[in-house]
Write a structure and sequence with these properties.
Radius of gyration: 15 Å
Helix content: 10-25%
Number of strands: 12
CATH class: Alpha Beta
Number of helices: 4
CATH architecture: 3-Layer(aba) Sandwich
């Protein structure tokens, strides 16, 4: 399975259920990487999308503890056991964990690849991604050239878990 996220230098990912920054090239990378794939998210992540709607041209799986929660054009599961049963239906390499914080924390150890866009800035944030630089089993295997968006500097990194 894969993780995909945009983080700041402190591995922050959001504030008040919103992304910290929207960089067009990062949004394009996310769209191109996940289109036609399976995306796994929590309820609050889904609700942060435009009109709270699932992402088009993907299989959307939403994990929530709220058993009354339903959403059109998404598969809703209510426990990690249900999620794991649902994920058995798909090739592992086609599954992307897209947030939020609690979903990343619960699934990071089950993933093999992480696509991380790291912004060289520290934002005020209330949600964080697990710091892969502090996990000895994770290594950077690809690093883009330095990218800029206005005054922001960022890199696209690919981390892979060492077996």
């Amino acid at each position: 399975m894969n993780l995909i996220a945009n983080v700041d230098i402190n591995w922050a990912i959001g504030k008040n259920n919103q992304l910290l920054v929207k960089i067009p090239a990062d949004m394009k990378f996310f769209r191109e990487t996940t289109t036609g794939k399976v995306v796994v998210m929590g309820r609050k992540t889904l609700e942060s999308f435009p009109n709270g709607q699932p992402l088009k041209n993907r299989t959307n799986i939403v994990l929530t503890h709220d058993r009354s929660y339903q959403v059109k054009e998404a598969i809703v599961v209510y426990s990690m056991d249900e999620l794991h049963e649902e994920l058995k239906k798909y090739p592992s390499e086609d599954i992307y964990i897209i947030g939020g914080e609690s979903i990343y924390r619960q699934l990071v150890d089950e993933c093999d690849v992480a696509h991380i866009t790291k912004v060289d800035f520290a934002y005020d944030a209330d949600a964080h991604f697990p710091n892969l630089d502090e996990k000895p089993e994770w290594r950077i295997t690809q690093d883009s050239e330095e990218q800029t968006y206005f005054d922001l500097i960022y890199h696209f990194y690919k981390y892979e878990k060492q077996k």
